[in-house]
Amino acid sequence: MKRELETALYGGKRRRSIGANFAGWAMASPWIIGFLLFTLGPVAASLFISFTHWDLLTAPRFAGFANFDKMLFKDPQVWKSLWITTYYSIVSVPLSLVLGFILALMLNRKIKGLSFWRTLYYLPSIISGVAVVLLWQWIFSPDFGILNYLLKVLFGMDKVYWLTNPKLVIPSLILMSLWSFGRSMVINLAGLQNIPTSLYESAEMDGCSSIKQVFHITIPMMTPVIFLNLVTGIIGSLQTFTNAFVMTGGGPIKASLFYMLYLYKNAFESFNMGYASALSWILLLYASALTLLVFVSGRYWVHYEGGDGK
Amino acid sequence: MKKHSLQLLLDAVTYLILSIGLVIILIPFLWMVSTALKTDNQIFRFPPEWIPNPFAWSNFPTALTYSGLPFGRFFLNSFIITAVTTAGTVLSSSIVAFSFSRLQWYGRKTLFFVIIMTMMIPKEVTIVPEFILFKTIGWINSFLPLIVPSFFGYAFYIFILRQYMMTINPELDQAAKIDGCNIWMVYWRIIMPQCRLALLTVSIFSIQSHWNDFMGPLVYLNSLQKFTVSLGLRMFSGQYGTEWGLLMAASLVAMLPILVLFAVAQKYFIQGVVVTGIK
To answer: How far is it, in rounded angstroms, from Cα B161 to Cα B206?
Structure first.
């Protein structure tokens, strides 16, 4: 009876009627149209635009491979910006993952005020954008900022020029990003609560210590969650724009000229649409390559229950 | 007995670390509030005072009304954009999610895979051609480039809602159909009310991201009267770069709507992250 109902309702394999097909496509059409208009179309268009010189005032001129030639061989800033972005990702993503994981482990213990702690640690992640950047700019202020003051009082440290020292500007931005590690913590926490307690119970019976349990049960069981945090973290960090744009404008001496910032400057300050399009293609390829790398590596370290590899 | 003392030690360490974290999390907020209530004179004092004496409440009206920037207008603009985009996002994403979860149609699986793929694309890679598109149709310096795309659904939200709708009993639809509901009525009257929680989560995400959005307004808006709060704030910092009291007052007000939303609906914020993170 139930099977019949489902077949009638969903069409099943046999009864996937024209009507059901039409309704399905019609209701999915907003996304399909949006995908063509705002994703596939633009990605394809940017490929064409990348073969032109176009300032939007005059008609585009065919440029052949000039933009790619410039990008690959004549413009070292592309590689510097790519490196800055990668450096930022390599440090900030794992750090916030580890912080989020350790905090989640602590909050998964039977402690008092769990929801208070969870709310508190999540708080910084809900606010982002210009207001937060301005706040951190003030925190980093060398003369009157709270950070230098605390470092001086606690450790007797000299004044640190967080945002104007080219060597420190990226670590400073990483520090700021770590303040909002709460997102990865909450996701980890949910993952931890999904681990069946029976696993720990049997480990306990076998005389496994708590530390051993973390390494032999918790971490393997959490690898899918860590994987997810890793992928979203990498994609997010490649998009870094607002923080650097507002806080440093890419400086000092272009030390924080993130890739998106460089792309933005080419597109909307110098109006080199062709070159900016070529740059966005590289970003797309780079993001895809990194994602692929993570997915491929995942086969070796991500443990899926049932073990069918997703 | 030994076990017991180990547990106690672990508890102590946990609370200690959590409390240190508490201080680290809260200092920036307290510092902001404290600065927002200080005059220049009080700010540039060393060592800094945490509690301003006296409170410089005047920073708020000065920042928001006497700065020459129409902050009231900025807030109105941000409210309009956030409200319309959120309505559009929720409506369109839920219809699409309904189709992907409750209807059987040819190509459904393939397209769902495409949706997942698009979630891996940094959306900024399309900013150049999108700008050209909107410029060609004359939408620059209007809210349209920020608003219209939201009516076509966002992959991420479609994904969340679809996962949620998959868990609803299929017999519900059938019962409704027998009662004479058409597909729209099933979507609107049967499924949507069942998804209230997930819809709330998506709305909160959408409000948060559109309120804080900076790059979109930066690229598409260029006259002061159309600026959002983020753009206005940045302009403000350009003009009053070292007047931290005013800057922090303005920043605090800019964050306020999201902080209030969080205070009211924090359960759904966290639940939302959990739902999206785990699937």
So the answer is: 13
Quickly tell me which residue has 């024209």 as its tokens. Answer: A18
Q: Give chain B's count of helices (H) and strands (E).
A: 15, 0
Q: Residue A61 in 3-state DSSP?
A: strand
> Which candidate, A290, A273, A289, places its Cα nearest to that of A45?
A273
Which residues 275-294 in chain A show a CB within 8 A of chain B? Answer: 276-277, 280-281, 283-284, 287-288, 291
Interface test with B, best of A21, A31, A95 (most B CBs within 10 A): A31
Identify which of A181-190, A227-236, B220-229 has the greatest average pLDDT: B220-229
Q: What is the dihedral of CA A16, A19, A25, A30, to 10 degrees?
A: -150
Q: By the CB < 8 Å criterion, does A131 face chain B? A: yes
Give Cα A252 distance to the centre of its chain: 24
Rounded Cα gap, residues A145 and B209, in angstroms: 28
Looking at this protein, which amino acid is placed at residue B273? V
Across the interface, whether the CB atoms of A231 and B213 are under 8 A apart is answered no
pLDDT confidence of residue B242 = 75
The C-alpha angle B108, B113, B117, rounded to 5 degrees, equals: 145
CA distance B149 to A38: 7
Residues 61-90 of A with CB under 8 A from B: none
Torsions phi, psi of B122, nearest 5?
-60, 125
* B273·A122 Cβ contact <8 A: yes
Nearest to B215 among A24, A187, A241 (CB): A241
Calculate mean pLDDT across residues A27-54.
92
**Measured distance CA(A296)–CA(B230) in Å, rounded:** 39
From the list A5, A37, A231, the residue facing B171 with the nearest CB is A5
Query: CB–CB of A235 and B122 under 8 A?
Result: yes
Q: What is the DSSP letter of A276?
A: H
E strand residue ranges, chain B: none
Confidence of residue B87 (pLDDT cuts 50, 70, 90): very high
Interval B137-164: pLDDT, tens: 999 999 999 999 999 999 989 988 998 8
Chain A: residue whose CA lies nearest to B40: A144
Closest Cα in chain A, distance from residue B58 (Å): 19
Tell me if B144 sits within 8 A of B134, measured CB to CB.
yes
Residues B46, B167 contacting (CB under 8 angstroms): no
For A143, the 3-state DSSP assignment is coil
Please work out, in degrees rounded to the nearest 5, the angle formed at the alpha carbon of residue B107 by the alpha carbons of B103 and B110: 110
